[in-house]
């Protein structure tokens, strides 16, 4: 007897849940913790030659010391656009222009700003949890369809438990990642 139902693709579900974790970690890298990190500039785009371009594609980003980022712009005509993009980015950094080099001194975070950043981190984590639960829901829909197509109940229960276990594991990973990031932000 051949099965007329399709088993859920658990590897695909795991890959998608891992993607949510990876996206969360990338978002966390953009949060300023009082230490300089080149990844802080990743979300900033500049209008270069008629197209929105990431800052790191119009110059070299360096972190010469723990509280300083430098951006060496290759094309002199892009310096003012890069400076404008940095000022409007919401990072709270005041760029200092010196020829084609833009220095970004990272100010010490005050208590209020640290608390705000922990809330932002929590928002990012909640988005990741929602993405993971959506992947779970997709898996459960496929499982329900497989059951209606003839999957035995004990097999359906096994897949259901596997998907739920994977979901719980990924949610715990989000929580642990958030806790670590919040500790890092609150560190003086």
Automatic annotation (TrEMBL):
Annotated Pfam families: RRF (PF01765)
Entry keywords, A to Z: Cytoplasm, Protein biosynthesis
Domain of life, source organism: Bacteria
Biological-process GO terms, alphabetical: cytoplasmic translational termination
Coiled coil ranges: none
UniProt cross-references to CDD domains, sorted A to Z: RRF
SUPFAM superfamilies: Ribosome recycling factor, RRF (SSF55194)
Compartmental location: Cytoplasm
Residue stretches making up the Ribosome recycling factor domain: 24-186
One Gene Ontology CC term in the entry: cytosol
Any one GO molecular-function label of the UniProt entry: ribosomal large subunit binding
Function: Responsible for the release of ribosomes from messenger RNA at the termination of protein biosynthesis. May increase the efficiency of translation by recycling ribosomes from one round of translation to another.
Family: Belongs to the RRF family.
Protein name in UniProt: Ribosome-recycling factor
UniProt source species: Aliiruegeria lutimaris
Gene name per UniProt: frr
């Amino acid at each position: 007897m051949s099965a007329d139902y399709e088993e859920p693709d658990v590897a695909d579900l795991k890959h998608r849940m891992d993607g949510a974790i990876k996206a969360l970690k990338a978002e966390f890298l953009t949060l300023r913790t009082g230490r300089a990190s080149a990844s802080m500039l990743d979300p900033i785009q500049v209008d270069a030659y008629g197209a929105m371009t990431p800052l790191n594609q119009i110059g070299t980003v360096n972190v010469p010391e723990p509280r300083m980022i430098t951006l060496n712009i290759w094309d002199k005509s892009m310096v003012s656009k890069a400076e404008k993009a940095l000022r409007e980015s919401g990072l709270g950094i005041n760029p200092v222009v010196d020829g084609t080099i833009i220095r970004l001194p990272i100010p010490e975070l005050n208590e209020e700003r640290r608390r705000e950043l922990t809330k932002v981190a929590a928002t990012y984590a909640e988005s990741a949890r929602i993405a993971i639960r959506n992947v779970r829901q997709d898996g459960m829909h496929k499982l329900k369809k497989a059951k209606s197509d003839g999957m035995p109940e004990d097999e359906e229960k096994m897949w259901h438990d596997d998907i739920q276990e994977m979901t719980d594991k990924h949610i715990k990973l989000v929580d642990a990642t958030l806790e670590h990031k919040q500790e890092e932000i609150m560190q003086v």
